[in-house]
Each structure stands twice: as C-alpha cells, then as structure tokens.
Predict the 3D structure of the following.
Amino acid sequence: MSEINLRELYKWCSIPAENLVSHPDVKIPFALVKDSSELGEVMARELVDEIKSHNARRDATRAIIPCGPKCWYEPFARIVNEEKVSLKNLHVFHMDECLDWQGRTLPKNHPYNFRTFMEKYFYDLIRPELRVPDGQRYWLVPSTMKRVEIAIAEGDIDICIGGWGQDGHVAYNQARRHPFSKISLQELENSTIRIQENNVDSIIALAHRTFGACYQFVPPMSITLGMKEILSSRKIRVYSDTGPWKQTALRVALFGPLTPEYPITLLQKHPDSKITATLDTARHPIS
C-alpha cells in the first residue's frame, strides 16, 4: 500500500490553482473552469457530444451516470431539447444509491434518494419524445445488483462521468478504513458492485455539506458500482464544483502515488481519463 508522504502532500497543496493545468508533474489531464455555471456546460456538452457521435453511427451509447454535480442537469436538458438529440438509444447505468442502516432503499422523497432526484432533474426535463426508455435505465439497488452486473458485462461502457468525494471516492468506492480488513490497491481496482457501510468521514462530510453537520440524517450505508466497472469505461470524466471538501483529494489525484487511501488515483492508470474542477475547488488554503 502506498502511503501519503506528508512532506509531499504539503508540496502538492502549495501549488497555486492557476499553475495546476500546465504543471509538469500532473499525472492526469486536468482542466480548470471559472465556476459552477461553466462546469455544468462543459459536463453537459461532453455527454451530449458522446451521444450524438453514437447516434450518427446508429450505435447505442452506454454511459455510467452520477447523481451530481447538480450544475449540469439544466444545461444537459437544454442542449438535448434545443438540438433535438434523441436519447432513445442511450443506456444509463446509475453508479450508486444511498441505503438505510439495514441496507434498504430510502423513502422516495428523502434528500439522499438518488433515484427521486435523477427522475426529476435528469429524465423529466427532457422532452418526452427524446427521453431514455424506462427499460434502459439501470437503477442500482440491492434487488437489481445481478441485473446491472449482467447488463454491464454485455458490452463496453462508452463513458463514465462523475465526481469525487473528500477521500477521492469515485461512485461510492471509499477508502476502506476498517481496522481488521485493509485492502490492497489491486483489490480496490478489482472491486465490483457491493453493499457497504459508509465511512465516518464520508458521513461527516455529507452532513456538513447538506444538513448543517447533522450527521444523524445522513444515510449510513450505500450500494455502488466497483472500481472495476468504472475503470472498464472507454472514457472517464470526473468533475467538481463543491469547493473545500474536494481540494486535497484533487491534489492527491493529480500528483500523488497510486493508493487505496485515495481511490481516485486509480484514474492515473486509465488511458482516457480527465479531471475538471472549478477555481474554488482547485484552490487550496495551503497555497
């Protein structure tokens, strides 16, 4: 396991945000945007262009899609509707979902019910004649694990878009902090669909972001695609506009070693991955 050297970490965090894009030591292609509005446009256009290129060849588009960042849903719907981009041949694999303490799905209108959010802001904003068919929406919940696993194995994933967490988790592939079952980098890389307890630091980070640090309301469990499914995508594009709680993970992703302490570092091994962040997310207090 590669540990993070604190002297090195301080050096990475000291680099001014404006110098990250062209820094000679960056290990993943990186793009810097001004704010959430610009990030949403970039993120939406990336997916729309991928779909249009497949539509032009009359091919299906198979995409892993996140619940967030929130800034891209309105631009995506606007572009699709204005340009009349058919989503009839888009297959959407939802990357994760939150669960209660018994591993059950949350009530429909719970703030962390990802399906409720995606139905309202991803699917329903699209004109009916252009929408993704219901049978091509692969919701990841305990009862659908096998169906999703089989569907993903049926063909290549063309693009995975997403964000990252405070520990660099992509989907809900958190750094495993269990004291009695540490995992190696290879085990993380080969991880697959699973139900899991959420880390304490993930719960606190989400509580601070969403509930005024009321950690009691944050879902304690989740279901997620594994890093194996994420890394199987032909393209991986991750984005963030949420500022301070993503800043250190970004620096480790760009400059650090491959380490299960920050799962996002595995994107360094992918042949077509890219990170895009807002200036507020790319800044760091140490710099």
Remarks:
- The CA atoms of residues 82 and 127 lie 10 Å apart.
- Strands lie at 30-33, 61-65, 90-94, 96-99, 137-138, 159-162, 194-197, 221-224, 235-240, 273-278.
